[in-house]
Every structure is written in structure tokens, then in C-alpha cells.
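Sharing a chain and its predicted structure for anyone who wants a worked example. Both blocks are below, sequence first, C-alpha cells second.
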Amino acid sequence: MQHYFEKARTLDQADKLARFRKAFANQAHLIYLDGNSLGQMPLATKDLMNQLVAEQWGKRLIRGWNEHWMELPARLAAKIAQLVGAQKDEIFVGDSTSLNLYKLAFAVLSAQKGRTKIVSDDLNFPTDLYVLQGLIQQQFQQHRLELIQSQDGISIGEEQIEQLLDEETALLTLSHVAFKSAFMHDMKNVNQIAHEKGALVIWDLSHAAGAVDLALNATNADMAVGCTYKYINGGPGASAFLYVRKDLQARLINPVASWFGHNRPFDFDLRFQEADDIRKFGLGTPNILSMAAMEPGLDLLLDAGMSALRQKSEQLSAFMLEMVQKELVPLGFSIASPIQIAQRGSHLSIQYPEAYRINRAMIEPNDGSKTIIPDFRPPDNIRMGFAPLYNRFEEMAETVQRIKTIIQTNEFERFGKEKLTVT
């Protein structure tokens, strides 16, 4: 392993994004590889939230709406638009990813008259499938959901998508980066395949936004949803976002007519008048505390630039993959992510029968080792996320060395097989 540590130090010295690490609340005895689930807190977020609570809310009270808060969602939307390659009036910020998916899927199924098939894949995030199942059960009982089956549990072939789409297909919805394997669809090609069949596409960008160089407009994407608490570092449960291409906005309805979807909410008109732009997808009062915490993370990503972030992400991922192949595969591990970097997002999954207990041992060392936090996904995946703003190459080498030690000493055996609530 020594030559890997030497290589890591060389890569860290050449890292053009190294300056961003000091912008986060890093802990000296911690290696954090779970930024694909919950990003680290930017130091600026603490100061911002203190000021918002003590001054804006604490002293200015209701005046804060006109002074700060009413324009916050639009300002955040403009910044997210830059990250995902969209126009600022194509992004709505608010609600949760699942609720935004519900709104868009309902809108598509209502607009696509005579088409009764919904297509997704078995690599999609389960909640997305729950939303679709609920829509069919409750409002669209004539529709059916068909799932493309991955042949290797890692990836989906474009020919599989093409074979399942037909003139009955109303909606295709996929995770751009699969949550478990990190498989990344070619967005442009998939959009083209769907459009040739007359289907509309909703992308889930939750494991892509802030880590993958996205181009929604350039790939002719119809719609998308995404969260901000992973690579965008917006904080636990931070407000989500949705994207609707501008030429589609008039065609689609928001299934929930509500206050902030009204064209002029403060007229207090008793008749609903839907907003004629992206605001139509709003519901209730914006969650200001949650939204405000998102901005420091967005600013750091925009400062770094998505091209540079993706380049470092690929380097971190490739370096980890090389070490896994050389050091861990001989110990019985297997790789559960695409080998080709162009098909892989910003995390890497490895499999081992005792993955859960190894994961526990990494998080709770008993020998003075650094705490290393990846996460576990069933049945036997250790998932390691690479956040280019704060992860270092030497951390990758330390992680592989630690996994080897846990295996060689059977340290994982001190943990039971029962699982914690959050894995």
C-alpha cells in the first residue's frame, strides 16, 4: 500500500480544488465518504444561520419577507440552474424531491392523453417507484408501471430502454445516477430515444447534482427533480428543486392548486389563478430556514466550477477503483459499479458478504484508527461517495488500508448482524 500513499500525496499536492477543503467543518480524526447521502456543513452556513435567526427572524420579524425572504427561492433557483445547465426561469426550489416528482408525474400523465404506460428501471430509487405506484393506485388506475430489469444489477442498456418504450408510453422516469451502483445514464441519448416514441422524461438528479457536469438544456431534457442535501451541502432535509423546460411549462398543470402557485398570492383572491411560469409548481410558504442554509454550498460549487469538480471526482473514483482491484478484490470483494468512468457518477460500491458489519467497524473503530464514514446499501454493498470539494486522495488510501485491516483481523465480528435504523 505504501506506493498508493505516495501517489495520493502527489495527487493532493497537485489538487487545484484543495483550497475549498478549509471552507468545511472538517474533523481531524474523520474521513467522510458519505457526501452522496448528506454533505458536510460549509462553515459559512453556521454564520449565515446565526444571522438569519438572530437578526432577520429575531429582530426584523415579518419585515423579513420583503427585506430578504420573498426573493430567496428565485435567487437559489438561478444558482441551481447554473449547476444543472438550465435557465433560471426553468427551476423551482421548494418542497421535497418526492413531492416534486409527484407533481411532475401527475402533470405528465394528465397531459399525455391516450398513453397509459409508465416506464422506469429497477435501479431507480425506491421512493420514486413508490410515488408512481401511488399515482396509479389513487388517480391513474388505467395506467401501468413497467420496469426495465438490469441484467447485472449495475447498469441498464439503452437498447433495453428502446425496446420497452412504445406509442403507449406516457412517461419515462429514471435516476440519472443510480443510488446503489452509481451507474450513469447518457442523458442526451435517452432523451432522444424517448422523444422518438413520443414519451416525456423526468430525471431524478439527486445523486448527480453538484457532482456531475449536467446539461439539461443541451440534452433537451424535459423535466427533472433533485435534492440539495447531498453534494450541494444544503443540510439534512434541505428543500429540493424541480426543472421544467420552458416550452413545456404552459402544457403541464400542478395537481395541487395552492397559495404560492397563484399568480398573485397576496391579492388573496378567492378564485385560483395559476401562475404562468415556473412559479405554478409552488405549494405553500417557502421553508426559509431550510432554503437559506443551501446557499453557501451552492456558492462553493459555483466558485469551483462543475467541470473542475467532475474532473476531480473522476480522479478520486479512478484512484479508489484501482486500489480496490489490487488490494480488496483478492480478499473476496467485488465491484458493484460500472468500470468505465463515463458510466459512473461520484460514488463507488463494493460488495462483500459482511459488508454491513465492516461498515460498522469503519464508523466505530476500537483501535484508535480514524473514523471512516461510508454507508451500507442492501444486500451487501459498501458505498463510498467522493465529494471533490473536501475529499482528499490520501483519504482514499487510508480507507482501503482500513478495510484490509478489518478483514485481516476479523474486527467486524464484534458487531451483531442486527441493523441500525439508518444504514
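Comments welcome. The chain is about 35% helix and 15% strand.
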